[in-house]
Automatic annotation (TrEMBL):
Originating species: Selaginella moellendorffii (Spikemoss)
Native organism taxonomy: Eukaryota, Viridiplantae, Streptophyta, Embryophyta, Tracheophyta
InterPro entries per the UniProt record, alphabetical: UDP_glucos_trans (IPR002213), UDP_glycos_trans_CS (IPR035595)
Protein name: Uncharacterized protein
One GO MF term: UDP-glucosyltransferase activity
Matches recorded under CDD domains: GT1_Gtf-like
Length: 309
């Protein structure tokens, strides 16, 4: 997202942004390395670029970032060279010479889960068999969408640990009671979890996430492939790279309504994505390869942090 943010002026100057609500030419709004050097793949202004492409105010804020960052004595970023080497190189060539990658920040060697119920449930699952479902704390899904997620997870026949806020659980008490009865011990629904400890647990084999950067990097560092379900901010571009460039997961296919709002994703799509991810040895192998690189990089990041401190 940093690379896009500091180059938003280029997108504005070349007419890629902002969009109008009458713009129906997505093929003319594709950004690649010929537009912004260092972009590792084609990005659609409609679906992949951070911020609302119809909102000039959001881009006005992004335009103000570049000069202060160029003047900063140090610019610390938390990422993994293995997946963003091209982008980091392009940023340095643009003048960000004091950019220092201190990531991925250390996540530790193993799970230290303190919640007894969650630990007991995870310990009872087979290696890499459980799907961890968590959409973060910034957004609460509509009730209809929560129900479709539940039905989809049930139909997938996969074991799952689902973090669902208490507010959603209160509103959907009857539905969740029925779901718990039908799935039995195959699923566990909780209101909070220690995400990094869940991801580090050996029974976890997949992660349903909105693809916020911290969650994405934690999952990569733990060797857990993802189902990307982006909604806002940097999530779409993180998901794009995770699926198309890093090959570490699959995406939920979500279409927008004519007014630009997101439609409810049906249970069949949730089921398809869960089965696709959990049944893929290729994705699991690729995630483990990235984890290996991340473990090596953490030693380097520790040394860099010590130098800075």
């Amino acid at each position: 997202m940093l690379h896009i943010s500091v180059n938003v002026e280029t997108l504005l100057e070349k007419g890629f942004l902002p969009l109008s609500r009458n713009d129906r030419s997505p093929e003319k709004k594709v950004v690649d390395s010929s537009v912004i050097p260092g972009i590792p793949c084609e990005l659609s202004v409609f679906t992949d670029i951070p911020e609302d492409p119809l909102d000039p105010v959001g881009f006005s804020s992004m335009r103000k970032l570049k000069n202060p960052l160029l003047k900063a004595p140090r610019l610390l970023v938390n990422t993994l060279d293995e997946v963003e080497e091209q982008t980091l190189g392009a940023l340095r060539e643009q003048g960000f010479r004091k950019l220092v990658n201190v990531g991925p920040l250390p996540v530790g060697p193993g799970s230290n889960l303190e919640d007894h119920t969650q630990k007991e449930w995870l310990d009872a699952q087979e290696i890499s068999s459980a799907l961890y479902v968590c959409f973060g704390t910034m957004l609460e899904l509509p009730e209809e969408q929560v129900m479709e997620v539940g039905y989809g997870l049930e139909a997938s026949q996969q074991s799952f640990l689902w973090v669902l806020p208490e507010s959603s659980q209160r509103k959907l008490g009857d539905f969740l009671e029925g779901l718990r009865t039908r799935i039995g011990k195959r699923g566990l629904i909780v209101s909070w979890s220690s995400q990094i400890d869940i991801l580090r647990h050996p029974s976890v084999g997949g992660f349903v996430t909105h693809c916020g950067w911290n969650s994405t990097l934690e999952s990569l560092s733990c060797g857990v492939p993802m189902i990307g379900w982006p909604i806002l901010g940097d999530q779409p571009i993180n998901c794009k790279f995770m699926v198309d460039m890093w090959r570490a997961g699959v995406r939920i296919e979500s279409k927008s309504s004519s007014d630009g709002s997101s439609r409810i994703v049906g249970r069949s799509e949730v089921e398809r994505a869960a089965r696709s991810l959990m049944g893929s040895e290729t994705l699991r192998k690729r995630a483990k390869e990235i984890k290996s690189k991340a473990m090596e990089a953490m030693e380097v990041s520790r040394a860099r942090l010590k130098e800075l401190l």
